Structure formats: C-alpha cells, structure tokens
Amino acid sequence: MKPTSIKRICLLSIAALTFLFTTSCEQDKVEPEMSAAPGGGTITTFKAYTLSSADANDIYGRIVFWKDNTGGTLVQISLYNTIEGDVYPSGIFAGESDAASDTELISLYPINGETGEFSTSKFFVIPDKTFYDGLDEYDAYVQVLLEDDAVAIGNVGVNADPVDEDE
Amino acid sequence: MNMKHMKKYLLLLIIVSSTAVFAQQKISGKVTSTTDGTPIPGVSVILKGSTGKGTLTDAEGKYSIEASPDDILVFSFIGLKSKELTVGTDANLDVPMEESLNELSEIVVTGTRSVGRTKIETPVPVDVISIDEIMGELPQIDLAQMLTYLAPSFNAVRSQGGDLDSHVDPAQLRNMAPNQALVLINGKRRHSAALLIITTAVGSPSTSVDMMTIPASAIERVEILRDGAAAQYGSDAVAGVINIVLKKGTDKLTGSMTGGGYLNSGGDAGELTNAGDPDGYNYQLTANYGLSIGQRGFINLSGELTQRRATLRPFVNDWEVYDPTYLNNERTDKNGNPVVTNPELIAAMGEGNDALVSSLQTSEGLMAARGLKPEDFAVYAGMPAITMGSMFYNAEFGLGSTTTLYAFGGMSYKFLEGYSCYFRRPAQTDRFNYLLYPNGFRPQMNSNTSDVSTTIGIKGKAGSFNMDFSNSLGRNRMRIGMVNTMNASLGSNTPIAMNLGTHQFMQNSTNLDFSRYFKDVLHGLNIAFGAEMRVENYKIFKGQEESYTYGEAGILTVGEDGLLIGPDGKPLEDGSSTPIVHENGNPIAVSKGDKIEIKSFSPNCQCFAGFGPKNERDEFRTNLAAYVDAELEITKDLLVAGAARVENYSDFGGVVTGKFAARYTIAKNLAVRASISSGFRAPSLQELNYTHTATVFVTDENGIPQPVDYTTYPTNSTAARVLGINELSEERSMSYGFGLTYQPIIGLEFTADAFQIDVNDRIFRTNTFNAAEVGNNYEEVIGPQGEAQFFVNGGDVRSKGLELVGNYTTSLTNTSQINFSLAAILMKNELLKKNIVDLNVENLTDEELVEKYLNRQVIGQFETGSPRTKFIGTINYRVKKFSTMLRGTYFGEVTELSTSTDVDGNYYDQTFSAQTVFDLSLSYDLTQNIRISAGSNNIFDKYPDMMRPENRGFYLYSNAQQGSNGAYYYGRVLFNF
C-alpha cells in the first residue's frame, strides 16, 4: 500500500471515529411517568375504635384513623347493617360518649346506607399534621345518626383503647 | 434485473487510484461491432487504475479521452464482451467489440453445479442482484430491506412491535414462509436465527435466517433462485434459494457513512396518534478491504456499525386510564391497608377545595393535575432501536496448481429494544403497583443476539473430478430481556428489568461434493454427486426466577383464628375492591396458617413470561443426505437437468426428492424453460420444541383488550397427546415452473416465469383449546384457566403465480445513459384442504372443532395477509458525474380476516388498499475518491390504511405493506481508495 493511501485511511479512520462519537451508541430510553403528588402508596399506621349499636337496628362497626404518608389523618368509618337508601350523618363530638355532649368537634361525611361507608369519599381528611400524634390524648366520641337519633356510637382517643392498631 | 451495465458505469465513477498520471495525451477512436461493423453508441470507456476518468462513445461510436501510453482502457457495454487495451503511443485507438450473451448477465452459481451459466441460460429463473454495485444508491441500509425493494419475489415484513415480532425480520420468497426458502452463503447452508417468529411470518410461526446479521458491505451479489430446489440442496428449498455471494476484491478500500431519519408526520391518524419531531435516526458506517496473500490468495474483510434509533407511532386510545377505585383511593393491600393512589385528591379535600376535588375524581382531571396527556398512556408501536456491529471475512489460498483452501464467515452482535407490550394502565388492578409505577407502565422487550459462523473448505481435483469438501458451523444465540416491567405477584420486591431466558440454535454441516464435465457426451454433460451431514441443536435456557414465578404479594397467611376482615372490621377486598364474603354475605371464618389469595396479581414478567425450567430444551437432530445431479446439453439448443436426493432425519425418517428441468433455445434471443420438482421441509427444531406461555389480549364487550394466557405446547407434550394432536411430520411439496427469456435487441431483456407450488401437510398453529371445551378432565393437564395451542400439519396449500422481469439500457446522448427496469409478481395463495384429525374434544361441535384447528384468521393470514401483487419499476439516469435513481414500488392489497364479530355475526375483516411508494436518490462524484448520495424512501410520505376501529389494538396501521414509518431521508458519503 502506498504511503498516501495509508494517510487517507488514517484520515478516514479519524472521520469515522468522530462520526461514531458524535452519534453515540446510547439508545433513548422510554421511561415510565412517575409524576404524582407526594403522599401516595400503602399506609399502615392506624388506630381503629369500635362503634357500637345505639338502638335496636344493630348498626355497628369501626372508625379508623389512618396516619397518611404526609402526616395528615384519614378517617374511615365502616358499618354493618346500615339500610340501603338511608343517609346517616356522622361526626366527632367532645368528651365521652356517656356524657353525650352536643359539641361537634369535627363534622364527618354522611354515611351511605348501601355501603356503610362515607358517601362522599372513602376517607374524611384531617389535614392537621399534629392530629394523629395527639390522638391518644383526644377527648372525644363518635356518633352516627339517623335524622337526629344516634344509631352507632363509640369513644375514641383518651376515652377508649383501640380495637386494633398498628404503629 | 440486469446489473451489468450499472457495474460498468459505476466502475467509471469509482475508479481506484492515487497515482499521479504523467505524459497525458488525447486518445480517440471509434467503437464498432464485429458482427456488422456498425458503430456502437454508449460504450463506457474508462481508464483502468485511475479514478473518475472515463467517457462514453457518442452516437457515431466515437470517443476521446486523456491518457498516458502505459494506461489501460476498459471498454464495456451490456451485451458486448468487455475489452482491455493498453493505450500505447498511437493517438488513435479503434475498437471492434464482440457480442456475447455471457456479458448480458453474470455467471450464476445457484441451482447448478455445472460450469457457469448466465441467468438467461439457466433452466430455472435466477435473479442476480449486485448489492456491491448498487447499495450506495439505496435508501435501505440492511440486506433484507434492500432485497424487498429490489426483488419482487422477496419480502421481509418489518414489524412495528408486539412481543418479539420486531426482533428478526422474516425473509420470505413468493409469499411462502421464511423457513420454506433456503439461504446459502457462497453456496453453503446458512443457519437460521434461534427465534421462532410468531406472528409476522406468512401462515404460521416460523424460523428465518436473520439477514441483518449479514453485513451488506460484505456482499458482492445475491442470487435468488425462484424454483423448488430441495433435490439439489435439501430441506427448506421449497419456494426457492437465496445465495449470498461474498466479495473477493483485493487492494481496495471501500466504505460509506450514512445518516438518515424519518419525517414522522403521523399520516392521516390525527388525534389517534402523536406525531412529533423527526425520529428513527439511523447511522451506519461500512468498510470493506481486500488484501492479496502474495499471488496465491486473498482475504477480504468487511465491517459494519449500525445504530438505528426507534421510531414511535403511538396509538392514542380512549381506554380507561384511572378507574374509580384508583381515583377515590379505594384500593387496599392484602391486609386491608389503604393504598393511596390519588394523593392529589386528599390534599384538595384537606384544603376544602370542592371544585378541585370533583375534578380530581375524574381521569381527565387527575391527568391534568399530574401534567399527563392521553398520549402518555398510548400503545407504542414503531421500529425497534437497534445497535449492531458485524464483521465478515472471505478468503482463499492456493495450495497448489489445482487445490484451493477457502474460508469465510463472520460474527455479528445485535442489541435490539422494541415496543413489545400494551401499556399497562393503572386501571388494570391485577398488574399494578403504585410504588413502582403510579401511572402504569410500558414494558419493552430487548434482545442481545450474537451470531457466529465459519466455513472452512478445500477445493481441488480428485482424479478427473472436481472436489469440494467443507464444513460450516453457525450459531445464533439470543438473550431475551425486558425493561420497565414487573412481576405483579411479587409486589414491590419485583425486579423492574429481567432476563427472560436465552434461545440458541446451532448448525453444523459437512459437505463433500464431486463434479465432472464431459464435453464429449452429446454437447456436454455435467455430473455431480455428493453427501451432506448436518447436526442441529436448539436450546432454551431459563431466565431469572422472578420472570416466571407466581409470588405471594396477593396471598395472605392468616395470623390467628377469626374472620377475614381488615383494620376497618369489614371483609378484605379482592383485586377489584369487591369484598370477599361468605355466600350469606358475612365475613369468612379463617384459621391460623391458612393461605388465602386476596389479590389475584398477575404472575410472571409483564408482558412476556420468562422461560422457566419447564420450557428448557436441549434438542439435537442429525441429518444425512446424498444426491446426484446431472446437466446435459442434448443439442446446442436443448439443455436438460435432473437431480435426486435422499435424506434421512434422526427424528422423523427418510425423504426422497427429485427434480427435472429443461431449457430450449428457440431462436438466438428467445428461449423457453420448464421444471418440475418434488421437495420437502423438515419441521424446524424450534417448531418441534418451542413452548411458551404468552399473554394475549382479547377485546371484551366494551372494546377494551383483556389479558388471557395462551400456552404453545410442543406436539410431544402430554397436552398434545391427551387431545390427540399428532407429532409433526415434514411438509412435502411439488413445484412446477414454466418460463421464457427474450432479448429482442442489445440492451433489452425480458423474462416471464409462471409457477405453481403445492405443499402438503403445511404446518400451521391451531387456535387455543381450553379445559371446558375439551372436557375429559383436561384441566388436570393445562390448568383450569389455561388455553393450549399446538403446531399441526394443518392443511394442503397451493401457491401459484407469474413473475415478470424486464430491463432496458440505452444511451441518450454521448455522455449519459439511462436504464429502465420493471419487475412484477402476481400470485395467489390458497388453502386446498384442512387436514383435520379426530381430536378428543367433548364439548365442541364438529364445525367449532374445524374452526379451532385452523381458524379463518390463520387462513386469511396465509392466503391474503401479505401483498399478492408487487411491482417494482426503476429508472436510473447517469450523466457525467451525476446519477439518479427513481423507483416506484407497488404493494397490492392485503386482506386480514378476524375471528371476532359484531352482534350481528359480521366478522371484523378488513381489506387494506394497494400502496405505491417512491424512492429517489441523487449521487454526485465529489472527487476522485469521494462520492455523495442523498435521497429518500417513501418520498411522498405515504402511510397505509388505518386499521378499522374494532381491530385497533397494538397497531394503528397495517404492517403488511410499506409499514407506518412514513418518509425516510438519508445522506451518504461513499469512499473508495
């Protein structure tokens, strides 16, 4: 091979390498869309309290306070024996259930008789980040009503031990 | 297609030299015919060893050129015997040129073991495609796609994705299956790819040679024998033979750099797709260099580096993205703990923003809050991303006066990542994990393929016989992987990238061939005989365990006796948030230690189960064959050829095949040819042994695809035995061909060939059988939810058609040349008979069973699923340093048959209209050594018809014609030293 040819081959090799480096061997990746607000995922910290029947209809169940991943509290009520078509207002009231205070601390969503759960959403949201950690000292009871009469009632916080909990 | 003329004027362009030229003088003269002394216009006159120096003779046959006395001038023109003359001292050099049929086309080596014949002298049709000469002007950068646009009988569907469909393109002849065509390199059998191509091959799953592993830059020409040749070459040569002839050139470095990309206009899909910036950028670097080994041999090396970026042609659909359980945070884990899927909603409720709350309770509202659009949840289809490198060598070395040692082969590595799966929407609760993929995921399959091959042989004389002894070893190994995936049943512990297993196919062929030409027997007799031994091995290696297992993320182990309730005291809920209750509606009583499936999460890797221990295979077979082959010229005008071959396979026994062909010259420029042959195709080891469970999506009553698991069982499995499915046997074929070749004038040639190929016991894949349909306790074999399918020798089929090739070259002025070529295939595939066997099925009517065995979708795919008509018209025009190529390719209509119907029982069939696409390229010689070329494939950006709405699933457009990539533009620099 002639020296001029070798020179050309060298130049060509340089051009080829430049070509390769500029194009790069990396292939584009299709990445999953991870966009979502913080706080999603499984939540496992909760305290559940019993709601007992307050009349002859034997409506009973639980109220669960879940500490969500942002530190807020999600309240869930699940009842048995509610009647389809009926709507049951519910709320958290001050003091022990025996005292039957009318002071409503938090008005919860009404309960759908068909499902025994909140009609608006599965959870009622308490955004206060200190609520859950103060729950053990919370002096309150929960009342589920039909019209103005209590159908299920139960102490929470300082007034009762949870029926189930997970820290 | 005759490429000889192109060779000549390309040579004119690509002359190789770096030497200085001294003592130049003007040489002129006249070129005339020796037959009648008439001047010949358009003859190319080039200066051998110099670059870019050349001219054409004018209308009076005259030329003039600058040259020095030591230079050699090469005179060539189609239909004339080329001449090389040293210039000498005389300024006038007249050249008489002789007509020669041999110069009309190249010497063909495929389908004959005799001394070379040209393609118009062979008794069967052979296309010769000089890849070496034309690849610089082609928009396509891989062999299979080049041949698709050059040879009407050849087709290679480039799938837009779907499992592994885009990982190997099926190389097909005459609309028959890829494994019904035999691929040779330098006349030796090429090994197939390990992968069994499932949906894009004609008729049924099939293996194919992966043409992409053979660098086009290593190829001198491709000969396509369009006739059955099993009697000459053995199994697979049913539709024809593709023989790839490697380059032998020496002391010349040629190469190219190509860059290109797709326009990505989206066609007519509007909002159904998401057209964007140009995509699918391709880069390719090729080089070829030949070295002489003294005077006795050569070694020719070729290398290619290619990177193809993916094209993206999404199908933006209206399938439910977030369902109510997702939007309202109603999902739970197996313990009843809430899974917050819509934290945006909780934040809005906390703020008391009622308007935002109601917006976030809709799919559209949540997507907007997350900055997502419907196209983020689209089904992705398009060309896969490919990074590959390959190197081939071809070498010969003379050991003595008559003995030559030869070797050729190569290695290729291919990384490919394709669009494989439907988007996994968050609404699909059985394959969802918030932590890993809050907005769903799009699994993609990738493969790493290594392909190695080598042939070593010796050619020489054994007494008065020519002898050729060789061994060819080839191996294709494909490691299959998946990314952006998960095994939902493993919960958050699942890997998100998995090794699904490795497939490997190895083939070793040992050949011993003898031939002798008896010139005194009538007008010449060639006798050849020989033997072949072939060993094949197919392996499936399992992938990682997580890719094929069923984990316990959805299974609860009960901690203490009691009721199956969650923290809220209510029954635990299954995957679709339905309470798991006793039939009286109360919670279920459970005992400590019970294992209960709460959430039925999908097992295996999404969307393609890994190959597990039960799929592992290591299967061998051996094959012995002997043949005798004779060609006799009874008179100067009549050639007859015959061959017989006996084969024995270790797995299914023996086969005898035969062939008879004849060619008769009616006039000097007109000949007729005919052939009849029997052939066969042994079922591939892949067809015999492949087993896999695939998730198939079946459209539900709401038009949303729902997953169902289909398992392909080998015919030697229990599932096949219990059902009464027979073991696979070979396909047997009869081929008939009749044609003529005609050259009315120098520069114009024409061939027409009609064919019919009958294949008995063609292998198809059945529809699926489930336990309820089969009865007989079949669930014990395939499981209660299983769907089983099998390969069967399903039917007798016929392919018939007509192939036409015409080619005309002439000079327009004394500095320009024009070539027209037109090639066409018109053909029909037909299922003649279904070979139904009596299956042990209790709960299907005879009619339903026949439809199961060979359903209308499979029949439709075979009969009308690829274009039955294809025309390719090309015009090449060359003037001075500039040349151009315009090509039109017509793909005939395609009809796909469906097994789904509307409420009135009308099938969702669809006929896709015929398509014509145009390619254009322009080339210019920049300097003596550098040529530039630019152009386009599908220059008018033509997209095929869209699928009818009911059939839109993975694809928005049909794959079968030009595909849905749209216009492709490229630029290329070619160099030559």
Structure in words:
The complex is a heterodimer of chains A (167) and B (977). Helices cover 13% and strands 41% of the residues of chain A. Chain A has 167 residues and is mainly beta. In chain A, strands 2, 3, 4, 5, 6, 7, 8, 9, 10 and 11 form a ten-stranded antiparallel sheet that branches. In chain A, a hairpin with a 6-residue loop joins strand 2 (45-53) and strand 3 (60-67). Chain A is elongated, with a radius of gyration of 31 Å. The model of chain A has no long low-confidence stretch (mean pLDDT 89). Chain B is mainly beta. Chain B has 14 helices and 48 strands. In chain B, the strands form nine sheets. Chain B has a 22-stranded antiparallel β-barrel. A five-stranded mixed sheet of chain B has the order 10-15-16-13-14. In chain B, strands 3-2-5-6 form a four-stranded antiparallel sheet, covered by helices on one side. In chain B, helix 6 (343-351) runs antiparallel to helix 7 and helix 7 crosses helix 8. Chain B is globular and about 110 Å long. The model of chain B is unreliable at 6-22 and 101-105 (pLDDT under 50). The chains are: A mainly beta (167), B mainly beta (977). At the A-B interface, helix 1, strand 1, strand 2, strand 3 and strand 4 of A face strand 17, strand 18, strand 20 and helix 6 of B.
